[in-house]
Input
Amino acid sequence: MRRTVGLLMLSLCLLLLASCKPGTPKGILSSGKMEDVLFDYHIAQAMAQQSNRPEDFISYRAAVLKKHDVTEAEFDSSMVYYERHTELLQKIYGNLADRMQKEAAAQGASAADMSSYGMTANGDTASIWTGLRAMVFSPDKPFNYAAYSLKADTAYHPGDRLILDFDAQFIYQDGVRNGIAVLAVQFANDSVATQVVQVQSDSHYSLQVEDTKRLGIKSVRGFFLLSKGNEQTEGGLTTLKLMFIENIRLVRMHIKNEPTNGINGNGITNGPSAGPGMPSDSGGGPRPVPIQGAPVPAGVVRQ
Output
């Protein structure tokens, strides 16, 4: 009898603990549901851009929400909720990056990506990125910064070129977009070549550093940062501000011992004149290429 009572008390305690477990608030989409909606959302946005009719996205967005039985209010409220819980949004976009990559591979995009970098089967070009392929940043610490670091091994050759590629998207109600990305390479003689790019628009960004003196590479490191800037107004401190960095790729290319075009003696890319979101110095790199934007809750105005 005593054993039966003990089991009943234990079951009651477990039920109470389960009922107290924090969950998603009422009216907010679960993380799994939000991931599914955002997956179709981004595909719909890409379709609208490919049709060269941006206005089509209004109907595409409505179709996505109808497919998932989600109202505009639920979607917008959920975006605000997950922005305030950046670690959850980071996980969602990490899963989305994996799903997008698998979808692209199924459509044959991997071969196209490899050829665009001159990748060959003999390993002359290799992807060396080991971190998350998608990150979400807000201006508040510790969610405004992410660093990466790789130590060179025997697969690195003197003269190698490092290319960091990523796409940036913003959700900003107001204020100045002030993101930064850094790629730094330490050579065998402990000298360092660095490229910095300001991330201020929904664009594709590419940074390159090359071991032009064929010294050999010891390490590769860098970081992404979203700065608050000098905004001190009440609205600037409380409104929705998010920066998405996704499709991150860090590529190592073996370069033959021959003159290279576009790489200066410091190992920094000499690209065309700086475009939007790029520094104005000679190390600006390639001009950004616009890509599709991130979902914007009602009332949010893109800048």
